[in-house]
Amino acid sequence: GENVEQHPSTLSVQEGDSAVIKCTYSDSASNYFPWYKQELGKRPQLIIDIRSNVGEKKDQRIAVTLNKTAKHFSLHITETQPEDSAVYFCAASPAGTALIFGKGTTLSVSS
Amino acid sequence: NAGVTQTPKFQVLKTGQSMTLQCAQDMNHNSMYWYRQDPGMGLRLIYYSASEGTTDKGEVPNGYNVSRLNKREFSLRLESAAPSQTSVYFCASSYTGLDEQYFGPGTRLTVT
After folding, report:
1. How far is CA B52 from CA A44, A92, B73, B96, in A?
2. Does B25 reach chain A within 8 Å, measured CB to CB?
3. 3-state secondary structure of B83
4. Which of A99, B93, B96, B103 could form an S-S bond across to A91 if both were Cys, CB 3.0 to 4.6 Å?
5. What is the pLDDT of residues A45-78, one digit of tens each?
6. Angle in degrees, CA B82, B84, B86, rounded to 5
7. Which are the contacts of A8, defined by CB distance < 8 A and separation ≥ 6?
8. A44 and B48 in contact by Cβ < 8 A?
C-alpha cells in the first residue's frame, strides 16, 4: 500500500523566514496531494492541494510543488508569522479513494 | 450547516468494554472516513466509506468495525476496547477521495 514519509518532524524558524516541508510517497498511482494544518487542540484543515497534472500551485504565502518522477512534493511557506505555528500534514491519495497521511511536522515560528 | 459532528467528545472505557462513536455530516458528501491520531504517528486511516453502502479497511482496521448507516452517518464500533486504542478519533467527509476532507471535532478516548 501507499507509504508517505514526511520531513522534518520539527522545524523552528524566525518570523519572516521561509519554511519548507518535504514528503515522499511510494505508490506511483497516487494523483492527489493535499496539505493540512492542525492547530493545538483543533481539527485538521486543508490549506492547499495539488493534483498530478500540475507541477506547482500557489496561494498567497503558501506554495506546493510536485515532482511525480521522483515521487516527492513539498510545502513552502514564505514570510512566516507566529500564527503559522502548527502541525502540518502531507497526504497522498492512492486510487483516489482515501488519504494516507505523513506523520506530521511541528512548525514553530518565533518572533 | 453544522458540517461534521461527532459524539461523544470524551469517553473513558475499561478494558473489554464496547462502545460506538457516532459521526454525521450535513454536506451531502459521498465519502466518509475514520482516523485515529496518536502523538508522533500522524493521522492513521482506520476505515473509510467511498459511497453509501460500501466500506473498506484502511491502515489500522484491527479491533474496529464500521457501519455506513445512510449517506449522512458513519459509525465506528469498538467491540472489546484495549488500552492500545487510547487515542483521539476523527471522522471526516468529502465529496470524493480527490476532494477536500472536512474533519469533525474529534473524540478523545481513554481505555484503562
Report:
1. 24, 23, 9, 12
2. no
3. helix
4. A99
5. 999 999 988 899 999 999 999 999 999 999 999 9
6. 90
7. A21, A105
8. no
Q: What length does chain A have?
A: 111
C-beta separation of B78 from B66 below 8 A: no
| Record: contact A98-B97, CB cut-off 8 A | yes
pLDDT tens digits along B31-84: 999 999 998 889 999 999 999 999 999 999 999 999 999 999 999 999 999 999
pLDDT in tens, B82-97: 999 999 999 999 999 9
Average of per-residue pLDDT across A18-38: 96
Q: Which residues of B touch A6 (CB under 8 A)?
A: 42
Distance from the Cα of residue A45 to its chain's centroid: 12
Query: A3 pLDDT exceeds 90?
Result: yes
Q: Are A93 and A4 in contact (CB under 8 A)?
A: no
Going by the DSSP 8-state scheme, the letter that residue B73 receives in this structure is: B
Q: Are A102 and A30 in contact (CB under 8 A)?
A: no
First-to-last CA distance in chain A? 41
Nearest residue in B to A46, CA atom: B100
Is residue B102 predicted with pLDDT exceeding 90?
yes
